[in-house]
């Protein structure tokens, strides 16, 4: 045998397809794409062995970092779910705009942080309570000034503190209390909470005095949330949503004949077994052989993995 060099990737694929070499390796997605171009794709298979894990990231519009993060973490979650053997996946209704819908219904949140280092001891509790009270007043005034909150009671609070042992530079954030007002009793319990949180993170606790470094107030105004619409049930049959069949390449599984369904016509309680493809205007859900999909009352797809 001898080593043969090729200048272009398509020359390598051509050499493999002509029988000049026995194995061709690249990213799994690339192998799946190249396999469709071979003279007889069914005579070739993508081996399950993985030489190295280098998942490809989704491409997004330049500057859209927020959507890029969403795409990357969805991809990472799917890879981890597969490795952990997750056996059920829920594809939400209107999944193509699900993240935007979630952001519209997310409660309004503002964080107020005030740095004022001091010993965390009972003599300073009045000063600490007043510090948080001042932040609360600022948060309420800002929300009411924006017309978001009509009354003081429309704003709820979470009280956090960045704390450390005397002599340390780093801090540990702890949750002190939630509610409309911070009570002295919550401060009295905060030292023990800090000791436990520090030990959990760094595996040890000290006898040093404890210091409060940052006051951290989270101010939240609840957003009205409309009820979820349920999908109408007319008694139609599953076949009424069928669009026929076509050959589908379910990589890494072999190509096969799959049933195609119109997702907009599926009703609650309907169940589909793979191989199949569910199509909507902005969503395509492939269902591998052995997997099953059921539709709940809201139109979510529950995918049971083999």
Account of the 3D structure:
The protein is α+β, with helices and mostly antiparallel strands and 306 residues long. Helix content is 27%, strand content 27%. It has helices at residues 9-17, 28-35, 65-84, 98-104, 125-145, 184-202, and strands at 88-91, 108-119, 155-165, 172-179, 210-221, 242-249, 255-262, 271-273, 276-279, 284-287, 292-295, 301-304. The strands form 3 sheets. A 4-stranded antiparallel beta sheet has the order 1-12-11-8, with no helix packed on it. The chain has a 4-stranded antiparallel beta sheet with strand order 2-5-3-4, covered by helices on one side. Strands 6-7-9-10 form a 4-stranded mixed beta sheet, with no helix packed on it. The two termini are 43 Å apart. The mean pLDDT is 89.
């Amino acid at each position: 045998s001898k080593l043969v060099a090729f200048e272009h990737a398509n020359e390598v694929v051509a050499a493999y397809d002509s029988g000049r070499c026995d194995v061709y390796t690249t990213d799994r997605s690339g192998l799946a794409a190249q396999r469709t171009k071979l003279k007889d794709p069914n005579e070739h298979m993508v081996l399950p062995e993985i030489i190295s894990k280098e998942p490809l990231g989704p491409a997004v519009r330049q500057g859209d970092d927020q959507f890029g993060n969403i795409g990357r973490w969805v991809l990472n979650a799917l890879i981890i779910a597969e490795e952990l053997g997750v056996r059920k996946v829920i594809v939400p209704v209107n999944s193509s705009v699900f993240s935007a819908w979630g952001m519209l219904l997310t409660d309004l949140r503002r964080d107020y942080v005030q740095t004022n280092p001091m010993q965390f001891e009972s003599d300073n509790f009045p000063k600490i309570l007043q510090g948080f009270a001042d932040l609360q007043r600022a948060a309420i005034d800002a929300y009411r000034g924006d017309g978001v909150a009509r009354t003081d009671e429309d704003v709820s609070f979470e009280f956090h503190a960045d704390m450390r042992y005397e002599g340390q530079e780093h801090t540990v954030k702890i949750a002190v209390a939630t509610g409309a007002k911070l009570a002295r009793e919550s401060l009295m319990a905060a030292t023990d909470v800090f000791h436990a949180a520090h030990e959990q993170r760094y595996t040890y606790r000290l006898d040093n005095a404890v210091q409060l470094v940052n006051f951290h107030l989270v101010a939240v105004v609840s957003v009205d949330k409309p009820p979820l619409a349920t999908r109408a049930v007319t008694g139609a049959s599953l076949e009424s949503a069928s669009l026929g069949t076509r050959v589908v390449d379910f990589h890494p599984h072999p190509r096969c004949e799959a049933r195609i369904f119109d997702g907009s016509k599926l009703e609650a309680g309907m169940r589909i077994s793979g191989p199949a493809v569910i199509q909507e205007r902005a969503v395509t859900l492939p269902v591998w052989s052995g997997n099953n999909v059921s539709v709940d009352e809201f139109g979510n797809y529950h995918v049971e993995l083999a």
